[in-house]
Design a protein that fits this description.
Helix content is 44%, strand content 12%. It is an alpha/beta fold. The strands form 4 sheets. The chain has a 7-stranded parallel β-sheet with strand order 14-15-13-16-17-12-18. Strands 6-5-7-8-4-9 form a 6-stranded parallel β-sheet, sandwiched between helices. Helix 5 packs across helix 10 and helix 10 crosses helix 11.
Amino acid sequence: MTGIFCPRCKGDMTKRHSARGPFWGCKAFPTCRGTLNVTADGGSDGTTAGIDPTEFPLDAKPVDPATVPARIIALDDEQLLVAAWRSGEAVAAAAAGSGKSTVLVERTADLVREGELPENVLTLTFNRDAAQSLREKLAKRLGSDVAARCRAATYHAFCLALLKRWYPTDARLGRIVGASDEAPSKLTLFGQALRETNAPGDADAYAEIDERLREAGIDLDAPDAVEQVEKSRWGGEAAARIVTVSRRYSVLKHERECCDFSDMLCVVAKIFAKDPKRILRYAHVQVDEAQDTNVVQQQIAMALGGCATSLIWVGDLRQSIYGWRGAEPTLLTDRVAAGAQLLPIRTNYRSTVAIVEAGNAIARGHDWHLGGDCRARPDAPDGERPVVRSGGAADAAAWISADLADDSDGQGPSSFALLARTNSILVDAECALVARGLPVRVLGSRGGVWETQVGRLVRAYLHAADNEASPDFVRIGNRPLRYAKSDALKRAAGNTDITVVEALRSTGDRGCIRLAGDLEDLEDMSYEGRCDQVCKWLVRDVADRAAGLKQEPDEDRIETIRALCEAAVQAGSITAIEEQVSRIKKTKDDQPAVTLSTGHRAKGLEWAVVYVLGTDAALFPHMKATDVEEERRLFYVATTRAACSLTYLVSAGEGMSPFIDEMGDAVKVVIEAGDLEEERDERDEA
């Protein structure tokens, strides 16, 4: 007997060793996980050590420094300062193209070489792709065995693993809404919550707002929840309704014994705040893409970092473009103001001197230009200034086609990207590229614009008009709202012995009968008339659902619907549309293709040649935007994706974006905005 007793089960304890030094651990581990600190005299002062033996294996040993490969990639002086940071809090303000991932990997390798246990270095990432990419880079740098011991995970994955260790028998952790076949979908639960509370609106919209509010740190069960929601950017006049529906959704989750992704973050953040003894003790915490973290993620990172030897936030405030979904753009400046050391990484290893200067011209003079002007690498070519031209997707497709035909510089389709502020512009871009026989890849949609949520709705309607129940048939039943029951829609979709209209009527459901009548009307129309009517229904659906939340309709979604329906008319038939989808789906990830993307999805990527479409005064900043500075940062992100060549295209008859005007001599305006319409007419005549 040691005379040291477990604070949890009162059983005997034994001295053990972890990455953070010796501690008293319960002999009943893993049944009991009690721990106590070891005092200088070998006893215990009764305080919990805060060490989870599962997180820090008892037999973990440092890596032999001789087995860690020497650094292959030379770091510049600013990168070295970040890699060498060992104690306290720091903000690494990493410019676009500055190699921040390389710095994170090299810092981790240096720590391991110095004797730190790999398990003691935690890197939190913004999304799964970033986490996977970091793990792969660590495996190449340190070897797969050592890399497997390093902690690199998204916030959600980290919190889920932690909750499973704390509550191994909780069935809800194996039934995750939206990720588990055993759990209902979030839309199903919110749809039920809407019906039970008699609330108007769209289940999609309520689900999104619920997630934003909770991850912004708003407790929807609190007595003052309505007041908190009213003050947020998502609630407004519908705050009371939102709180009522969200609370009912929470009850339904409990009844179905499931949880969602926001639960993972919020529960861990609350536990850390209420019981600091349960915070895992990592030696070093690294936060990647820190400018994109929301309030609850920040709380988790701050709690972990407060117990660590070092906490380093790595990000670029110039690329903070997710305020609309809860990211706090002031995080990095707030941390510097609180005493964190600012470590700028300003060298851009991606772009020409001219493109780097264009980025500086956009950001210079703004509070979020953290770290000051960026610079091109010493051997970077000067390059041509970004060019401002009149034109659109068809013009860009023609220029790309000509460049590929010339092939003098050896660039393939993957060297080119067309970026846009809105999804509706990408519809025209895909059609223009496909018309020229160019391979296309749309980021975020394997089958291109027709495989997006809106594209699938349009296709489902056109299939139904031809008496075909497509895989998305059930989704059009209540777009616009017809009060059709989902189980009745599913029965009708599965009844292939009779026509779609007959199957809908046979259900006896009033909503399905309304849909049958609408489809009969479609059957009597020309193909062009069908496309026009589908457009009207889906636009009305967007407006009705926004009205339910007392919000303005999503103009980008409406414009995307209109663009897709116009594209459907141009295609001539649903068969032609399906052939286009099939061709794009056949383009594998490793096959060369021209990339189409919104500015948001393009963050973190790069291409040799970039065309930014729709750089008009009404789109940059967007006419409906409430945060002009975030719009300017989005313009910066689009600009800094280019490595060699950058062209801004302004629609004929529209004025240039004020962001371009502010860039001064950093851009070359080929034609003045006032002459765009005349120039377009001359080109059309030619």
